[in-house]
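Fig. S4 source data, part A: sequence.
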Amino acid sequence: MEEFIEFQKEEMDVNLMPPLVWAYVGDCVYELYIRMHLVENTKMNVHKLHVEAIKYVKAKAQADILSKIYDDLTEKEKQIVRRARNAENHHLPKNADMTDYMYATAFEGLIGYLYLTKQNKRLKEILERSIDEK
């Protein structure tokens, strides 16, 4: 993913951030990736793009993707996933099972962490897998 926003913090600083901050960033990064993938590879109108994007970004889909790629994550990445999954979140999901929501938060946390620590090659690998595993 082309880096167009400069992020100045070092990995040590990112490690000290609450995991929900990683997920907050990861949600944006993942949704942008999915939208760009759809725009690049389809000829749908905006409404259909939105409907198709939801299939990738809803909590159940993200939880399923994480379960499919989990065994291929490094120990450090698994630790990040656990921290994000176990983060205390007082938000109750509207359209998702609480377990799926926790694992979707974990997936977004991983995406956000990789983005914030500028691990762009690994981030790209996982984002590409998310398309393949959907």
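Fig. S4 source data, part B ends here. The two ends are 20 Å apart (CA to CA).
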